[in-house]
Automatic annotation (TrEMBL):
Transmembrane helix keyword on record: yes
Name recorded for this polypeptide: Putative membrane protein
Keywords, sorted A to Z: Membrane, Transmembrane, Transmembrane helix
Main location: membrane
Subcellular location(s) per record: Membrane
Origin superkingdom: Bacteria
Length: 148
């Protein structure tokens, strides 16, 4: 839900800035959603690279090379987030992010099933970790919609 809050906040701020400063390309919600997705994936990717040990718990014990997988996912999130902003590349980046979201979904299931705390110091309550699963399709739809 924190990711969704970021998407909505950045998207709305972009839209507001577009209208306040009369920037036509920021006055379109679809473009603002694309910018928001790019920023959020880049931020999450940076977090994966800066504090990877805080995320390895999500896959340790059931996937080998947990640290390396966290680092690889961080690099991919940054590269694909940047790709969302590049015309001609953004559709491929969107498909890459959708694939990544699908590949990462089992880690979120593992966190919920094992009753582990959500990443980033978010609530460890069962209602929160299980509710995070419902938002994964929302993120997939967001990424797809903003580049279609």
């Amino acid at each position: 839900m924190a990711f969704l809050s970021g998407l909505l906040s950045i998207g709305l701020l972009s839209l507001l800035a577009g209208h306040l400063f009369n920037v036509p390309w920021l006055q379109q919600w679809q473009h603002d959603a694309q910018v928001a997705a790019a920023v959020m994936f880049i931020l999450i990717g940076v977090m994966h690279l800066v504090t990877p040990r805080k995320l390895t718990y999500m896959i340790e014990g059931w996937l080998p090379y947990a640290l390396e997988l966290v680092l690889i996912s961080g690099v991919l999130e940054i590269a694909l987030g940047i790709g969302l902003l590049i015309p001609g590349v953004n559709m491929y980046a969107a498909w890459g992010l959708i694939g990544l979201l699908i590949l990462l979904f089992p880690a979120n299931i593992y966190v919920a099933v094992k009753q582990l705390p959500a990443p980033g110091g978010l609530p460890a309550k069962a209602w929160y970790t299980w509710s995070r699963l419902a938002f994964q399709p929302v993120y997939v739809a967001w990424v797809w919609w903003c580049v279609r």
